[in-house]
Amino acid sequence: MGWADDDPLPAFKTFRTSCKPIAAQKSPIADSKALGTSLRDPCIAARAEDISESAKAREFFEKNFTPLQISRIGEDAGFVTGYYEPIVDGSRVQTDVYNVPVYRRPSNLFVRGYSQANASMPNKGQVFRKVGRRKLVPYYDRAEIEDGAIAGRGLEVVWLKSQTDLLFIQIQGSARIKLEDGSIVRINYDAHNGYPYTPVGRVLIERNIIPKDQMSMQKIREYMETSPDAAKELRRFNRSYVFFREVKLAADDEAVGAQGVPLTAGRSIAVDKSLHVYGTPFFIEGNLPIESDTSNTPFRKLMIAQDTGSAIIGPARADIYFGAGADAGRVAGRLKNPARFVMLLPNSLDPVARGKTMPLPEDRPSATIAKLFPQTEPAKETPKEPVKEVSKETSKDASKEQPKDSSKDSAKSAPSKDQPAAAQTPTVATAPAVAAPAPVAQAVPLPEARPKTAPDVASAATVKPDTPRRKRHHRRYRHRQ
């Protein structure tokens, strides 16, 4: 099972395609990723051989590579999804039917470290637009662009029938536009507006519109087509917007991936380019819904990393390319499954030595530290109820209704035996709580009064009588002349 069940010949041909730009580098630039520049030696060997038999292709990989299973720390398996190249009807000119523009990269779009002369911009990171000569502000988001922020500037490549078609093309990264005369226009990813991608399917799941176990691209399309007003709001949750360029490919040629080489249906995958090197072979094993929504088709194939995507994050994460058209879209749209990842390391690479130079994530805090610093949201402060003012008359009435036998209250107001009366702080007798029918005095405690203005004094010894102030006579002096 597994490796022996797959025919590695198509994977070898795909790998050989990726090796063309790798082997052509005379002085490869040092790469901080896991494999670095170690693919150069097996790529030179692959370009030198013309293999046409499955047995020899298997022998090539077993001779030049060492398998290593990979996954996230603490997890056993990775995760796979699928993508494809849509084929959509369109027009070169705007009409009543075709009125949704596909924009090329605007001239005022700016990415640090890149210029307009670059073939394509990165699919992650900040993107700005120039205002004047020096000022940079974040680029327009999806809502602003749909509302016409860059309309009328001659940026339209083609026109489509609906915003839903455009959204799916932006998610996939490329498309074949079938014009009214039967010709095909090929478009490919060129730049984005700098906002992170938000999956619209996740929004539908969180709103309980589509159950998680039934989610697929087909379900999303059906919802958008039947609810156009809700679809507009849903699209704008994803503020990311993709710009395209027209590429010169034949109608039957496969799409070009981020590595710059044509993709192979069923053998090319998109990976996290911040971790992996294009051209790396991965053996992926799992049970996927290839034949139908409920099927568990065994999938055990050697795949080659040739593309990337903003939603592809992590070491054991891949997007499988299934080709072009509606059938490929149906298969790709229902993939969201766990799978086992085995990366093939070139024999020239020592994983132990290479691992010593790779940064590792910080250790998780211990249970003791986690208790001391719990990751919980701070409790919201509840506003205190304002203290109601009680008039002096109410306090006097309450004191009259108080029973005479109140030993506890008198003990509180009397001076302590341990201290002389003169050293005691003047204590004011406050009206205690009164039983019904005096709810006001019972519910609200009386505020403490100042000693000089207290209506009732507990003991005369605790209050000193007021002594008249001694008059001071100030003698006036006349300055001598």
UniProtKB/TrEMBL annotation:
The keyword ATP-binding does not apply. GO terms for cellular component: outer membrane. Residues 469-481 have a biased composition (Basic residues). The keyword Secreted does not apply. Residues 87-245 form the Lytic transglycosylase MltA domain. Gene3D superfamilies: Barwin-like endoglucanases, RlpA-like domain. It is an enzyme of class 4 (lyase). Residues 352-481 are annotated as: Disordered. One of its GO terms (molecular function) is peptidoglycan lytic transglycosylase activity. Residues 378-411 have a biased composition (Basic and acidic residues). It catalyses: Exolytic cleavage of the (1->4)-beta-glycosidic linkage between N-acetylmuramic acid (MurNAc) and N-acetylglucosamine (GlcNAc) residues in peptidoglycan, from either the reducing or the non-reducing ends of the peptidoglycan chains, with concomitant formation of a 1,6-anhydrobond in the MurNAc residue. Keywords: Cell wall biogenesis/degradation, Lyase. Residues 412-445 have a biased composition (Low complexity). PANTHER family: MEMBRANE-BOUND LYTIC MUREIN TRANSGLYCOSYLASE A. This is peptidoglycan lytic exotransglycosylase. The lineage of its organism: Bacteria, Pseudomonadati, Pseudomonadota, Alphaproteobacteria, Hyphomicrobiales.
